[in-house]
Amino acid sequence: MNQLLNIFNGSTIFSKIDLCGAYSLRRIKEGDEHLTAFRNKYGSYEYLFMPFGLTDAPASFQNLVNDIFADFLDIFVVVYLDDIMVFSSSEEEHVKHVASVLQRLRDNNLFAKARKCVFHASSMEYLGYVVSSDGLRMDSSKVQQILNWPQPKNIKALQSFLGIANFYCCFIKNYSKKITDLTSLLKEDSPFIFNEEACSQFPILKEAFTTAPILSHFNPSLPTIVDTDASDYALGAVLSQVNDSGKHPIAFDSCKLLPAELN
C-alpha cells in the first residue's frame, strides 16, 4: 500500500473518484462463463460479467484499471481497485488532469458515484491516510478508534486491536519494540492473561499514536538519511530527508527478532 502513496512530492491539489458498480462492469472472458455457473429452483445460470466475491476478481479489476490509465499512472493518477486519486502541483494543471481522467472513464464505459467523489481539495483521505502537500498523516477517526479501544480480554480482541494499529506502524518509531509484550500473548497454546507488562505497554502504545508526526513526501533531490537502532529483541530504522527547515521523517520501520536471531 505504501508504494501507492510515495509519489505525491510537489502535489498541492487532489481529487478522488469512486467508481460505481466497478466489478460488474468487467466482462468475463468468453468461454469461461461456465466457471460461474449456479443453480436454483428456476434453472441453471452463468454470469456474463464478473460478480463480487470471485477469488481473482480484485486482481482482474486492478489489471483492467491499470491498463486503462497506463499512461497516467504515477504521473498524476494513482488507482487502487475502484478508488482513483488525481494529484497535481497547480490548479490549472489539475483541471486538465481531472478532465483527462473523466474522459478516459467515459471512453471505457466506467462510471463514478458522484456523492463519493471529491474534487479540487488541498487535502484528501485516501486508503486510510490523509494526503496533503505537507505529507501523509493518519486518519483522525482511525486514531480515535485506537485510543478508545478497551483492554483486550482474549486473543481475538487483541488481534483486532493490533490489526488496526499495525496499519499505521510506519508512523511509529520502534513500533515492534512497543508491541513486544502484546504480541507475546498471541500464543494459541497458552492461556490468555493480560499480564502486568501488557497492561503497562497498552496505554504507552496508544499514546504513541497521539504524538506521531506527519510523514513528508519523499523528494529524490534532497539528502536522505537512514538512522538505525537495535535492542536485544527488536530492530528499528527511520528514513528521513533534510530540507531548509530541518530533518523530516519519511517513514519508520521495525521488526521483532525471531527466536533464532536472538542467539
TrEMBL record:
Residues 1-131 form the Reverse transcriptase domain. Keywords: Multifunctional enzyme. The keyword Endoplasmic reticulum does not apply. It holds the Pfam family RVT_1. One of its GO terms (molecular function) is catalytic activity. This is Reverse transcriptase domain-containing protein. It comes from Austropuccinia psidii MF-1. The lineage of its organism: Eukaryota, Fungi, Dikarya, Basidiomycota, Pucciniomycotina.
